[in-house]
Every structure is written in C-alpha cells, then in structure tokens.
Amino acid sequence: AQPGMHSSLPFFFQGKTVIQAEIDAAAELIDFFRFNAKYAVELESSQPLSVPSSTNSMVYRGLEGFVAAVSPFNFTAIGGNLAGTPALMGNVVLWKPSDTALLSSFAVYRILLEAGLPPNVIQFVPADGPVFGDTVTSSEYFCGLNFTGSVPTFKRLWKQVSENLDRYRTFPRLAGECGGKNFHFVHSSADVPSVVNGTLRSAFEYSGQKCSACSRLYAPDSLWPQIKEKLLEEHGKIKVGDPAQDFGTFFSAVIDDKSFARIKKWLQHAKTSPNLSILAGGNCDDTVGYFIEPCIVESKDPKDPIMEEEIFGPVLTVFVYPEKQYKEILQLIDTTSPYGLTGAVFAQDKNVIQEARKLLRNAAGNFYINDKSTGAVVAQQPFGGSRASGTNDKPGSPHYLLRWTSPQAIKETHVPLRDWKYAYML
Ligand code: NAD
C-alpha cells in the first residue's frame, strides 16, 4: 500500500495530524473499550423476572461460530472496536484491517494481547479484501460480519452472505456502517461564525476523509455574502502540509493514489460542469504526497451528482437558496442523496429547528443543532446512520453489544407438574 505521504511515520498517522491521531487512536479507542466493558456488565445484570414458582435468568452467550470484522482505513479506533466488541461478548473474531492502516491496527492487536486477551480469540488477518470476503462468507461457521467501510464493499459482502445462506449453521448477523453525504442547513436566523467555523472544521479536518464530513452546505441568499466572505477568508488560513514535520498543520494528504485519482475526477467535474464554479482550492499535486487542496464549489443545480454522492475528500459544495423557500430546501435535503448519516441545522429560530427536526427525521442518524456534523463522542452521541449509510447499530452505545450476543433464557421451576391436565379439567 502507498502511504498517504512521504513522511517518517506515514503508516502511524494515516495522514492525520498529531492531535487528530491522538483523539482517534488513543482517546476514542479507550472510550470504546471502557464504555463497552461498562455496558457489558450492565447487560449481564439485566435479568428477567423471577417469581415464587420459578427462577428465571438470561445468559448472554457469544454467537456459535466466528465473526468477521472488516475495518476501514480512516479510524484506528473503529478497527479496534469492530474486533473488540464481539470478542468482549464471547465471540471468536477474524479481524481484517485495511491495507492502508495495517501498522496502527497491528499495534492495537498487540496491545490487546499485552493487556491479557487470550491468544486466538481475535485472529489478525491482514489479507486481500476480496479473498478474505470470499473465504469467510463461504465457511459454515461464519456467524457475523462487523463491517465499516464503503457501500459497494458492504453490498458485495451482503450478497455473498445471501448466496451462501444454506451453508450456515446459524443465521449470520450483519452490521455495516457506511458512507455519508452530510449536510449543513443554514437558516436566515443562524449565527454566521458558528456556520463558518463549523463548516470549515467539518468539511476539511482530516482532509475530508471522515464519513461524517460536511460535504453539502445550504445557505440562504440573505446570509450568503457574509458567509462566503468569511468562509474564503478563513479558508486562506488553512495550513496544508506534513503533520509529522510541522505540528501546526491542520490539513494533510489523502490516504493513497486511488483516493487521489477519485477526488481528482471530482475536481475535473467541478471545473468542467456549467452548473459548478470553484470558489477556493481545486488543485492537487502528488509529487511529494497525495495532496488535494481544500476545495469549495458553488452549485447552481441542487441535484448535481456532486451534491448527491460521497467523495470522501476535501470538497465542499454550496447551494444558495432563496431565503423564503427554506421549507422546500428541507424537503430537498431529505431527498437529494441516498445516504442518511449526519446532518446539522444552524438556526436561532426555535420553530425552524423544530420544523427541521421533523422534516429531516430520516435524513440523519446523527443530527446536530447549531453544531458541525462531525465529532461524535462515544457514549454521548452514539454513531451511525440508516438508508445507504448502513444498519445503524450505534457503536458507542449499549445497543451495539446486543448484536454480538445470542441470549439464552433459562427457567428453573420450583413447582413440578403433577398432572398433564389443566386445573379446570380435574
Ligand atoms: P472500503 O470499503 O474500501 O474498505 C473497507 C474494508 O473492506 C477494508 O478493510 C478493505 O480491505 C475491505 N474490503 C474491500 N473489498 C472487500 C471485499 N470484497 N471483501 C471483504 N473485504 C473487502 O472503505 P475504506 O476506503 O477503507 O473506508 C472509507 C469508507 O468507509 C467511506 O465510505 C466512509 O464513509 C466509510 N466509513 C464509515 C464510517 C461509519 O461509521 N459510518 C466510519 C468510517 C468510515
């Protein structure tokens, strides 16, 4: 795999700045492990009613077979959680890390072993993706997939599972958290600095390689001149560079040559489409690393593919709407993209916030009010979306643990049956 950039520690950073790597690989992973342990203990004490005639209990068994955990490149914490949660709940796990995050994933695996995880409960399998997918889904012992990554990969695995359904000893659990086309909706009552700072942070932190990154901004014509001026001024201050060499860097390279080529095509589209104009950025250069400038595009067509599809790079598209038509715009946001991951509404008017909550109920699994669409914290904003964004199993919450257990209810009677007949028949 190609590292994101030619620095001394490319595989550790995965193109993140030091603080972003710290938040991910240390802070969030620790939160996952500690909260999951707490939730597991609480689940264990969640027991059915016992009555004088019977003692009832629930045993939270692991699934019968193995779980395949397949992780994406962009979050070290996610890989640890995808493998760690099923293991915590008593499962055997085959963990296939991303090709472009091997070293950090391996470090997490070794830390788990050092911390006392018995050998072979989690098997670390740095394999080719399709070969791994074919192999695990054709085993009769396959009983679960814990996946985070792109929609095409998840769909492919799901189809393979259905094709192999007759082989399995148990119906497999399929959990998949996928991409997003996350929105910031700005009402004319919004606080402009919150919009500008929240949008820049959300769209461009980690070079836009976050599933929750804001990639479409809907701004009212009344506020747009102010927003635009501030957005471009602040955009000019974004420091692009190698975070391993310069700790002041906010923004670095994208992960590999494939990502670079994909995003370059979108930049080409923005440059050539008559509906689109580039307001800032738009260049890229792979001579010293896969660098793409943070790019802001304005679209005259709210249904242009750039407003609908996930780019997974630093490209933000703005659609300016007539202030009075904000209700239509809320409908438009809901119906523009197949995804339903994250979204934000910026408004001081409480009635508008209520309207937006109602109209966008199914448009985002994580919904923010006057805050950016990124930055979910374990146990505070459990994460995940529906529609094409995945099965919304909410890692970072107690619900997630239930996916990886097959509970057994046990009744011990204290009143032996003395007659097969009902009492009224006696
Ligand atoms: P990807 O789909 O390319 O790869 C994900 C994993 O699947 C990798 O380990 C890859 O090697 C493996 N893989 C690829 N083909 C396979 C196959 N046929 N069988 C089995 N495994 C296969 O995704 P990526 O580029 O690593 O990650 C980016 C994507 O992940 C984006 O779409 C992003 O939005 C999404 N993501 C979602 C969340 C979330 O919580 N919703 C979090 C992080 C990333």
TrEMBL record:
Keywords: Mitochondrion, NAD, Oxidoreductase, Proline metabolism, Transit peptide
Gene Ontology CC: one annotated term: mitochondrial matrix
EC code: 1.2.1.88
InterPro entries per the UniProt record, alphabetical: Ald_DH/histidinol_DH (IPR016161), Ald_DH_C (IPR016163), Ald_DH_CS_CYS (IPR016160), Ald_DH_CS_GLU (IPR029510), Ald_DH_N (IPR016162), Aldehyde_DH_dom (IPR015590), P5CDH/ALDH4A1 (IPR005931)
Mitochondrion listed as a keyword: yes
Cell compartment(s), UniProt: Mitochondrion matrix
Any Pfam family the entry gives: Aldedh
Residues in Aldehyde dehydrogenase domain copies: 14-409
Bilayer-crossing regions: none
Superkingdom, natural source: Eukaryota
Catalytic activity field: L-glutamate 5-semialdehyde + NAD(+) + H2O = L-glutamate + NADH + 2 H(+)
Gene Ontology MF terms in the entry: L-glutamate gamma-semialdehyde dehydrogenase activity
Catalytic residues in the record: E177
A biological-process GO annotation: L-proline catabolic process to L-glutamate
Protein's pathway: Amino-acid degradation; L-proline degradation into L-glutamate; L-glutamate from L-proline: step 2/2
Coarse class of the protein's main subcellular location: mitochondrion
Family classification: Belongs to the aldehyde dehydrogenase family.
Protein name: Multifunctional fusion protein
UniProt source species: Pelusios castaneus
